[in-house]
Every structure is written in C-alpha cells, then in structure tokens.
Amino acid sequence: DSGVTQTPKHLITATGQRVTLRCSPRSGDLSVYWYQQSLDQGLQFLIQYYNGEERAKGNILERFSAQQFPDLHSELNLSSLELGDSALYFCASSVAYGGSTDTQYFGPGTRLTVL
Amino acid sequence: ILNVEQSPQSLHVQEGDSTNFTCSFPSSNFYALHWYRWETAKSPEALFVMTLNGDEKKKGRISATLNTKEGYSYLYIKGSQPEDSATYLCAFISGTYKYIFGTGTRLKVLA
A43–B89: do the CB atoms touch at under 8 Å? Predict the structure, then answer.
C-alpha cells in the first residue's frame, strides 16, 4: 500500500458523459501526477500539480482538466467522453515539486470504461 | 519527438540467473530517469531515481547504471527469483518536464 488513494476503483459510463476521478496523495506529499494507461499506448503522463499550482503538462486532451485543492487532494475531470478514453488512470504523489528527483508513489488506479 | 525504448520487450530466465535490460533515451536535454517495477494487477513501484551521468544505484539484488552522454541506462538483477517477475519500466524526464515512459521489459523468472 503506497498511501495514495484513488476513487472510484471502477467507473462505467457512456460516450458523451463527464466523470470525475479523485486522488488523495500520501500524507505530506505536495505534488500530484496523473497518468493514463491505455492498451495501445502504454503509460502516458497527463499533468502534474504542486501545492495547488499546475507544474507540468503532458499529453492531456482539452476535454480533460485537473485541479489540486487546498487539502492537496486532486481531481481529474474527463468530459465528452469517447470510447478511446477507456483506460486505467493512475495518480501518483511525491514530496516536493521536482518530480525528477522525487520518488513517485502510485495509487491503485481507476479503471474507466466508456461504452 | 522524444522516444524512449526498452529492450528486450520480454525475457524468460531461470531462477538463479542474472539478467539485465536496457532503457535508451534522448541524450540531450536530460533531467532524470526513473525505473519502476510493475507487477500485474498492481500499480508501478519506484525502484530508482537517477540524475547524474555515471550514477549507480542498488537495492538488494537489483542495481542500475546511467550514461546520459550516450543516452542509456541498464537495470541488472542478480540471482533472479520468481518474485522478480514483473514489467520493468523506465521513464525519461526532460529539462522541460516532459515525462516519457518506455514500453517496459516483461520479465518472467521460471522456478
């Protein structure tokens, strides 16, 4: 158990819908990262927040957005869902903002299925 | 386009064998390299964070080296055990904070 929690564990929804994935980092960690793992693309970095501010951005679609709240939990919002958005979404956290030199601890993931 | 390649894609070894795999990454604009161990149905677990050319890190029977000038890192497992069976993933972080993952090396250790 890494100490990072993600909810829900599974989510099934329809095309065109909007969902919110939630992540609580380990106690004391200020950075949160979001990743997408789909069958055909491997693990892709989406976005990083540090202490409430966006720190780095990867291949995140415009239909997706994220934020980190004052209590440091983070939410990833996915809208106008398409079949291709079906994937496992991981959240990770680390102590500081660097990411590059911080060990990242991964949560168990949220499996999203879009029908 | 930044490309991170891992080889081999998969590997079967006998228990007790030592093995190694490679992560190749762009040699320019390097910031850091992460190695992860990823067991089926679990989430990635951090093994090493490597930042300096010539870095060598060790954790039990697993060690890693880094060559940023030529753009590669090796992961070594000494005396493989069945519990080492997993996918080993590297992630390259560029100076502009691009996180690029390799596709992993799937290791199966046969008892």
Answer: yes
